[in-house]
Amino acid sequence: MMENNFDLVVIGGGPGGYVCAIRAAQLGLKTACVESRGALGGTCLNVGCIPSKSLLNLSENYHKAKKDFNQQGIEFNGIKLNIEKMMSNKNKSIQVLTKGVEFLFKKNKVTYFKGKGVLFSKNDIVVYENNNKRSNIKSKNIVIATGSTVTSLPGIKINEKNIVSSTGALSFDKVPNKLAVIGGGYIGLEMGSVWSRLGSDVTVIEFLDYITPGMDREISNEFQKILSKQGIKFKMGSKVESIEDKGKSVFISYTNVKNSKKEVLEVDKVLVSVGRKPYTEGLNLSKVGIKKDSKGRIEVNNKLQTSLSNIYAIGDVIKGPMLAHKAEEEGIAVAEILAGQAGHVNYDVIPGVIYTSPEVATVGKTEEQLKEENKSYKTGKFPFLANSRAKVNNETEGFVKILADSKTDKVLGVHIIGPHCGDMIAEMALAMEFGASAEDIARTCHAHPTHTEAIKEAALAVDKRPIHF
Questions:
Q1: Looking at 325, 420, 448, 451, which residue is catalytic?
Q2: Contact in structure between 125 and 34 (CB atoms under 8 Å)
Q3: Most exposed: 82, 152, 209, 342, by fewest CB within 10 Å?
Q4: Phi and psi dihedrals of 230, rounded to 5?
Q5: Residue 157 included in any domain
Q6: Peptide bond into 358 cis (omega under 30)
Q7: 141 and 169 co-located in one domain
Q8: Residues 313, 334: contact at Cβ < 8 Å?
């Protein structure tokens, strides 16, 4: 049984788990990864980030070809949507990428167990394989990286037919005439914009009176205005009471939080997108003595150790934003800690992106957080309307907003809504990682004509000296 003795076993093959396993193997640890899905990559690669970005890209191309190209001198007739082909293209991308992760395991000599991993002691794991076979594994160290699963509202059952989670919304076989999205967060707005561009009449029902909770409010308000202009309807301050699936139609009963007025919306499909919860079922955590907090997340210290010092937890099962790249950073940190290095995650500089059109990207503190902390700050803003590259590309919506410390000029937060800002935010994350000031960014030469010049101009605007606005 020596071949089933490891230095590290990672339970979960999503972005956090597989990255942790690869890095640990690179550092010389004998490593295994256990994954129950039958394919590596977790929610992100199989039914999350990657397939949704495929559909976001394809739906945007379709929308541009149908609505915008004619005005720009690219004329053609008879454009039509082949949803089957679009889904097939999405699925092909997923297969290629999941196989790619398997290849990386082979290349880095990571042992891959297909099945559900269950803890039996702080060093023992049993893998229940899909063919009823079971394997016993011993490991000096264990990392729990089992990710998260969708949540619903009380009394509302997701059936992945007419009442769907994000998983079901990635695989409709035809464009729904009317689609309701419950929840105005990242996932709901991304999927809502996909189906809106493909022809659905989309209504978002949100309990709060603003979308994207936790985001800088000025960006959030601008985002809602832009999405409304694109045809997405919003029912804000509305509490969903019940959802009734009648087969051909779904009826949503909701109440206005302020005036208690009750309304009913009839649609073809409902996407329930009210958040995610840590997936820790069936792992035997309480039996082996691993503590969880009141929200069901595994408690860890600053080295990502659980209440058992040789068992670590990363990603969506612990506190913090449920983002693939946050999980990856934690996975690498744990691997490096186990190899005697100084693994570390800077939680103040984790970017977040919404991949709609235009995109929304954010890193660091929001204005609301700075006010709450009584932090004195300066603001610099620059609109894409005044950026030459955005202008010639007909992508002028949105702006860059930089928040800097009033005394030191250190950049505290950056919030962008506009074209390609999911890529542009990397510059600002890097600047913040090195403790840059707004002046540092303003003095850095940015190529012309590019969208990134809007970042330079916003940095200049912190000191009230933009050139082009």
A1: 448
A2: yes
A3: 342
A4: -80, -5
A5: no
A6: yes
A7: no
A8: no
Q: Of 234, 237, 181, which is closest to residue 208 (Cα–Cα)?
A: 237
Among 226, 249, 274, give the residue marking a domain's end.
274
Looking at the fold, whether 331 and 361 belong to one and the same domain comes out as no
Tokens of 114: 């297909």
Beta bridge partners of 115: 129
Domain of residue 27 covers: 2-60+78-149+277-345
In the predicted structure, residue 2 carries a pLDDT above the cut 70: no
Q: Could you give the angle at the alpha carbon of 384 between the alpha carbons of 56 and 222, nearest 5°?
A: 65
pLDDT of res. 90 = 97
Q: Are 339 and 28 in contact (CB under 8 A)?
A: yes
Rounded to 5°, the CA angle 121-123-124 comes to 65
Share of the chain above pLDDT 70, in %: 100
Q: Is pLDDT at 49 greater than 60 in this prediction?
A: yes
446 is catalytic: no
298-349 pLDDT, tens digit each = 999 999 999 999 999 999 999 999 999 999 999 999 999 999 999 999 999 9
pTM of the model: 0.96
> Is residue 192 within 8 Å of residue 299, measured between CB atoms?
no
Place of tokens 């919404």: 354
Cβ neighbours around 438 below 10 Å, total: 27
Provide the number of structural domains found in the chain.
3
- One-letter amino acid at 342 equals A
Class of residue 73 by CB neighbours under 10 A (exposed 0-12, middle 13-18, buried 19+): exposed
In whole angstroms, what is the distance from residue 223 CA to residue 353 CA?
Answer: 13
